[in-house]
Amino acid sequence: MAQAKEDDTVRVHYTVKLDNDTIVGSTKDEEPLQFTLGKGQVLPGFEQAVVGMNSGESKTVLVTADQGFGPYLDEMVVVVDRGRLPEELNPKEGDRIQLQSRSGETVTVAVMGVSESTITIDGNHPLAGKDLLFDIEFIEVVRSE
After folding, report:
1. Which end of the chain is less packed: N or C, by CB atoms within 10 Å?
2. What is the 3-class SS of 45-112, one letter each residue?
3. Can 9-70+127-143 and 74-122 be said to share one CATH topology?
4. Domain spans, the chain
């Protein structure tokens, strides 16, 4: 039985919860997640937990914010003049919208507040600053390098 190691392509099922047991993601009713270890395709703490697992093995691991989506950064919350937004964009508090950054990349932000002249947006990932509890079921090594 092959043990998962760096450069292996693997398949796993997972359920991820917040510390209050709220489930925020799962593959249990879907296809397993497939990724290659060591390529930065998944959260660092999740990847570290999978290394060394064998087919059929399960484990629960706490992935701290620094090994997950990173810390919550107050500087990622900004107030934007509505005149800088496309006219057809009519965001409401709680919406997630896509905007183009100064560097030209598309970013998804949460609308935190709306007034006639400004909107307040939060560019943090929704799970930034949160520790995550992963239940991992290792399915198989698909390809070993």
Report:
1. N
2. HHHHHHCCCCCCCEEEEEECHHHCCCCCCHHHEEEEEHHHCCCCCCCCCCCEEEEECCCCCEEEEEEE
3. no
4. 9-70+127-143, 74-122
Q: Which CATH class is domain 74-122?
A: mainly beta
Q: Are 134 and 68 in contact (CB under 8 A)?
A: no
Q: Are 91 and 114 in contact (CB under 8 A)?
A: yes
Q: Say whether pLDDT at 120 is over 70.
A: yes
Amino acid letter for position 10: V
- Residue 75's identity, in one-letter code, is E
What is the per-residue pLDDT across 6-60, written as a single tens digit (0 to 9) for each?
A: 999 999 999 999 988 999 999 999 999 999 999 999 999 999 999 999 999 999 9
Q: How far apart are CA 12 and CA 50, in angstroms?
A: 9
Specify burial of residue 10 (Cβ count, 10 A radius: 0-12, 13-18, 19+): buried
Cα→Cα distances 28→15, 21, 81, 94, Å: 7, 16, 43, 28
Average pLDDT on 124-135 reads 96
pLDDT-based confidence at 104, cuts 50/70/90?
confident
**Of 42, 46, 50, nearest to 6 (Cα)?**
50
